[in-house]
Amino acid sequence: LQVTVTDPRTVALLFQPVLLRCQYQTVALDPPIVTWKYKSFCPTPPGDNGIVTSSGDVPDVTSPCPDAARTVRIVATKQGGVVTLGDFYRGRGVTILGGAELSLGPAAWGDSGIYICTVTSTQDLEGNNEAVAELVVLGKA
């Protein structure tokens, strides 16, 4: 099993459609389970409002912080042709297209963060089953 994200960093404008591309190769005969998980960026230091208004203001995502300091939630899962959305994403234009591409519909303020594409197959346990994509949503061009 080999999972890759073709664009590890995506910058999108508010209210524009977003597509995070995740691809996988497997020797399994049955379709795997694809899960997209969202993690917010690490909290901003005091005095920093955290608002991103231009690409020069992209948050520093290299500083590690524990998951307990972030918002972590399931975006969507896909098994066979059935896509199930996490509670936070119901009612939005969110789905998993093709094999494992996450379509977020129009980007919202809370969409900036780290997205983890995980592919699980009980028939193919070797290799790397996870890839990471960052999304930064800008307020204006």
Automatic annotation (TrEMBL):
PANTHER family for this protein: TRANSMEMBRANE AND IMMUNOGLOBULIN DOMAIN-CONTAINING PROTEIN
Domain Ig-like: 16-133
Biological source species: Cepphus grylle (Black guillemot)
PROSITE patterns: IG_LIKE
CC annotations in GO: membrane
Protein name per its UniProtKB record: LSR protein
SUPFAM superfamilies: Immunoglobulin
